[in-house]
Amino acid sequence: MSENDNELKHATEINTQDKEIVYRRPLLAVICFRIVIAFRVVLPKSLFLCFYRFAFASYKFIYRNVYLARGIFSGKGEAMTFLIHDCMKYSLVGWEGMEATYQVTRRIFSNKISGDLVECGVAEGGSALLLCRLNEEYDENRQVWLFDSFEGLPEPTDDDFKSGKTGFHVRPLPKGSCLGTIENVSNLLFDKYRIDRSNVELVKGWFQDTLPNKASKIDQIAVLRLDGDWYESTKCCLIHLYSKVVPGGVVILDDYISCFGCKKATDEFLQENGIDAKIELDGRGGAWFLKP
Ligand SMILES: C[S@@+](CC[C@H](N)C(=O)[O-])C[C@H]1O[C@@H](n2cnc3c(N)ncnc32)[C@H](O)[C@@H]1O
Questions:
Q1: Mutation test of ligand 1: which of 117, 173, 233 has the most ligand atoms closer than 8 Å to its C-beta?
Q2: How remote is the CA of residue 127 from the centroid of ligand 1, in Å?
Q3: Which tens digits make up the pLDDT trace of 192-206?
């Protein structure tokens, strides 16, 4: 077992045939969730939205800094802790998801698995920034492809719902939520963090419109990070991009447990294509697997 494999040992392995997986929210999220629900019942809608924005920003602030403190005091790799703490400022991804992305991407680099880095679902650019910074830190100079509508989420479809819910997420996710604009992401990557522009392609549009054409420009993928939440979004990315992932490359599904449609799309795709993948959970709601 390599050093990187060892770092991944916290992840739980499951079988894709498992239908029900119990997902436990962190205590902080459970408390916040209950408070939000209570306020939604008692407050008028406009007041609730103001409260919600404030509560979410405060939650993110506390969450990031708890992560930093835990990282420093637990003696976890400092480089990882500082990098993830910094990128989380611009991300909706939890720290377990960011750590999984950090570790599997490093493993891909150290195992010299060739191919580009691709993220579908960029929002404000936090996890994309993590990929770009790892790419530069490890002097990899790989091409990074970042796909998003940059108009926020589309509507979920029937395939996303189970008993009237789309998943375990704390945030409500109506159309247009999780919005990041291409201008802000571009400023973040190229102006604030001085990422080399020639290594990055930002592709604006719905996956269903952009991927059929852009996929032909991508030769090989080493890291495919899917973070589009919904069934149609995930399925579309798998259909157009999975064949480009090299054996030993990784597919990260940020919403595999947290959004029902993401799991449904992935399980269907794996089954339809006879792919026997060992899915590893990141402990928060996401998962990843290595392409056999
Ligand atoms: C949860 S956010 C991504 C979070 C991001 N990775 C981060 O670090 O915060 C989901 C993103 O997927 C995008 N998205 C979802 N479905 C899409 C589709 N069919 N086409 C284009 N973008 C889509 C949304 O615009 C949104 O920005």
A1: 233
A2: 11
A3: 999 999 999 999 999
